[in-house]
Design brief:
The complex is a heterodimer of chains A (259) and B (385). With 259 residues, chain A is α/β, with parallel strands linked by helices. Chain A has a single domain (3-258), classed as Rossmann fold, CATH 3.40.50. Chain A has ten helices and ten strands. In chain A, strands 6-7-8-3-9-10 form a six-stranded mixed beta sheet, sandwiched between helices. Chain A has a four-stranded antiparallel beta sheet with strand order 2-1-4-5, covered by helices on one side. In chain A, helix 4 crosses helix 5. The radius of gyration of chain A is 19 Å and the shape is globular. The N and C termini of chain A lie far apart (40 Å). In chain B, 32% of the residues are buried. In chain B, helix 6 runs parallel beside helix 9 (265-292). Helix content of chain B is 64%, strand content 6%. Chain B folds into three domains: 1-38, no CATH class; 54-165, D-Maltodextrin-Binding Protein, domain 2 (3-Layer(aba) Sandwich); 168-382, no CATH class. Chain B is built from 13 helices and five strands. In chain B, strands 2-1-3-4-5 form a five-stranded mixed beta sheet, sandwiched between helices. Classes of the chains: A alpha/beta (259), B mainly alpha (385). The interface between A and B is medium-sized, with 27 and 16 residues. Bound molecules: adenosine-5'-diphosphate and magnesium ion. Residues 57-58, 174-175 of chain A line the site of magnesium ion.
Chain lengths: 259, 385
């Protein structure tokens, strides 16, 4: 199997403001969000980062997407260093967060063209790809309607499509189904499987077990910024359900720390 | 009822424990107080005689016995003896070369004892603070004489117009007092409306990440933002400008004699250049604030103190004291623009000050843009929690 993403010993600390110290109930003004984190994903699979809130999932995905820089360690996509060549990485990846809210004022058509252009996609190619994607996801009919007037599901579809204007081979989705109703969530999972069938490699983060069970080939369990285990879904769920497995690991981990 | 009280308590707690919220509640009051006190100070200070100022006065047909009226403890008065012609004196007064003309009727002293009371006419120029001041002083002085002494005469009792300010002067004064202030306030609110939304809005909605993962250089994203904002603000400022020029006559509805004839194309070009520079500076500053903020709401709250400072500087144009002559002061942003506008509108344009203003502001804008691009490259600012 061909490794696409290799994450090596990532570490990221944040300085906490006074307000954050209160929220996090800590006296320390430093938060280790990601701690010596390593894992790999393989070509054509969907990898799921599973962990509770505040585990460091978003931070990890942001580092891989070149949005923030790691203090230590590095990640490589197709052998290219995220740290040293962020410009090349940005051409290879598609990135999307669930909290994304496109500007109400614009139409899907306009936004698609805008991001195509920013990604440097050639006009003719962009047009062809837009027609394909819009048709496939039923955006066609609404492409000249302002985002503000569309349903949540349609908005989410447009956000997904827009993160893929440059046809990236490696796709990063942070909490893709967070806060979505069941129908929209189903649409997103179908979309992920569809992308996988096209040969894309995908990494998602979530705290939802069922999403992992439905779409992932490989799972990394992340707690308090540390990668506790990274294995295939099959291996992890050999003798118990994913949920049970997770809590077994979680108890071990958090228990150990309290001692 | 209990629920309502619970809600009220919670809401009040929320408002009064949030420093920023509190600030935005209290600032308008503070603002009004500060502005009005400044205006009040100006009003009183304008009535304190300026001891260093030499008040130049032309007295025509003055009887010997009246010369003591010029002995003032408070004013430094100089009688211009060599001017004896009323018309010459009047044109000098209109041009602010002298402050006052006192014309006694022919044979004044003899007529004082006669049946018909003689006239004394005092001419002044209301666009000059000094002229108005000394005019008031003389009015009082003459009325004191006419009451206490058995002399009997009229002061400014004829149909004549004693205020020799030209329509141009009056207009220039009113425009100088009003326009820079209104213009700056309009420009700032225009810039604020677009700038806060544009960058803080993207951060709030999360679209900033979508933008930052594109291969576009971050400094270019910053530039793209600030330039488009500047253009939008320029358009809005241009419309404010045109609206203002068109509305000046209406703004001063009661003054029929308002005119713009003292200004030429150059005046408008100079003002436009100042406006463009001003808008660019506002845009850059507000963009920096907007980039720093996490939400649109936060951005507008942070912009408020800046607005107060801008308004304070803008107020200096309303003081009616004329543009500052201290060249170094023209390095202070916003203030220098206000002073330059002041100078242009009151027809006392100074090239050196104008150039210093333009170039210093260009430097500030440059520094601001540099800072902004640095901010876009900083993950601490773009992804602050
Ligand atoms: N910009 C930031 N500044 C300070 N602390 C942060 C920042 N981003 C994340 N954190 C902290 O790092 C930890 C991990 O956050 P995150 O990666 O968002 O977790 P997850 O996505 O798994 O919920 C949390 O405690 C969070 O509060
Ligand atoms: Mg997260």
């Amino acid at each position: 199997m061909e490794e696409i993403l290799v994450v090596k010993n990532l570490k990221k600390t944040f300085k906490l403001s006074k307000k954050q110290q209160k929220i996090e109930k800590t006296k320390s003004d430093i938060k280790v969000a990601v701690n010596d984190l390593s894992f790999s994903t393989y070509k054509g699979e969907i990898y799921g980062l599973l962990g509770p809130n505040g585990a460091g999932k978003t931070t990890t995905l942001r580092i891989i997407s070149t949005l923030i820089k790691a203090d230590e360690g590095d990640a490589f996509i197709d052998g290219v260093s995220v740290k040293n060549s962020p410009d090349i990485i940005r051409k290879k990846i598609g990135f999307l967060t669930s909290e994304l809210k496109l500007e109400d004022f614009f139409t899907p058509n306009y936004l698609y063209d805008y991001f195509s252009e920013l990604h440097g996609v050639e006009k003719h190619t962009a047009e062809k790809r837009k027609n394909e994607l819009f048709k496939k996801f039923g955006i066609d009919k609404f492409k000249e309607v302002k985002i503000g007037e569309l349903s949540t599901g349609m908005k989410q579809k447009i956000s997904l499509v827009i993160s893929l204007v440059h046809d990236p081979n490696f796709i990063i989705f942070d909490e893709p189904t967070n806060g979505l109703d069941v129908l929209t969530a189903k649409m997103v999972t179908d979309f992920l499987i569809d992308l996988k069938n096209q040969g894309k490699t995908i990494i998602i983060s979530t705290h939802i077990f069922s999403l992992i069970e439905k779409v992932c080939d490989r799972v990394g369990i992340i707690i308090n910024g540390k990668m506790i285990c990274s294995d295939t879904l099959e291996n992890l769920t050999a003798d118990m359900s994913l949920e049970d497995k997770f809590f077994e690991i979680y108890k071990q981990e958090v228990g150990e720390e309290n001692e | 009822m209990n629920n309502i009280w619970t809600i009220i308590k919670k809401e009040l707690k929320r408002i009064f424990t949030d420093k920023r919220m509190l600030a935005s509640l209290i600032l308008p009051g503070v603002l009004i107080f500060v502005l009005y006190s400044l205006m009040g100070d100006f009003m009183t200070s304008s009535f304190v005689p300026n001891e260093n100022y030499e008040y130049r006065i032309v007295a025509i047909n003055e009887p010997e016995s009246f010369s003591s009226i010029h002995n003032s403890e408070n004013y430094n008065i100089k009688i211009e003896d060599d001017i004896t012609d009323v018309d010459t004196a009047k044109s000098m007064l209109a041009n602010n070369q002298i402050e006052l003309i006192i014309v006694y009727e022919e044979d004044f002293e003899n007529k004082l004892l006669g049946e018909i009371k003689p006239n004394v006419s005092i001419y002044y120029n209301s666009t000059s603070t000094e002229s108005t001041e000394i005019y008031n002083y003389y009015l009082t002085a003459f009325s004191v004489i006419s009451v206490n002494v058995t002399y009997n005469f009229y002061v400014n009792a004829t149909e004549d117009d004693f205020d020799l300010a030209t329509d141009e002067d009056t207009s220039a004064m009113l425009i100088t007092m009003l326009v820079p202030f209104l213009l700056l306030v309009f420009l700032f609110s225009g810039c604020m409306a677009v700038s806060t939304e544009s960058i803080a809005g993207e951060k709030e909605r999360g679209t900033i990440a979508t933008l930052l993962v594109t291969p576009v250089k971050r400094s270019n994203i910053a530039l793209g933002k600030v330039i488009s904002l500047a253009i939008a603000s320029l358009v809005s400022s241009l419309s404010s400008f045109i609206g203002l020029i068109l509305s000046i006559p209406k703004l001063m509805g009661e003054v029929e004699s308002i005119t713009l004839s003292m200004y030429n194309l150059l005046t408008y070009i100079e003002i436009l250049i100042l406006m463009i520079v001003m808008v660019l500076l506002f845009t850059v500053v507000l963009s920096i604030i907007s980039t720093f903020a996490k939400s649109v709401k936060e951005a507008s709250q942070y912009s408020l103190p800046v607005m107060v400072i801008v308004m304070m500087f803008a107020m200096t144009s309303m003081m009616g004291t004329g543009a500052s002559n201290v060249t170094l002061l023209y390095l202070i942003p916003v203030y220098n623009i206000v002073q330059c506008m002041n100078a242009i509108f009151s027809l006392s344009f100074n090239v050196v000050n104008f150039l210093i203003t333009i170039f210093s502001n260009i430097v500030y804008i440059g520094i601001g843009i540099y800072l902004l691009t640095r901010m876009f490259n900083s993950e601490k600012i773009m992804f602050n929690k």
